[in-house]
Amino acid sequence: MKRTVVHLAAIVLLAGSAGVHAQPAQKAYRVGFVSISGAPSFEAFRQGLRQLGYVEGRNVIFEARFADRLERFPELAAELIRLKVDVLLAGSPAGAMAAKKSSTTVPIVIAGVGDPVASGIVASLARPGGNITGTAVGIGDPAFGGKWLELLKETLPGLSHVAVLANRSNKTNAAYLEGVEAAARTSHVKIAIFDAANPTELDRALSAIGNSSAQGIIVTTDPFLFSSRETLVQFAAAKRLPATYFFKQFVDAGGLMSYGASLEDSYRRAATYVDKILKGARPTDLPIEQPRHFELVINMKTARALGLKVPRPLLLRADHVIE
Question: Homologous superfamily of 29-137+263-292 in CATH?
Answer without folding.
Answer: Response regulator (3.40.50.2300)
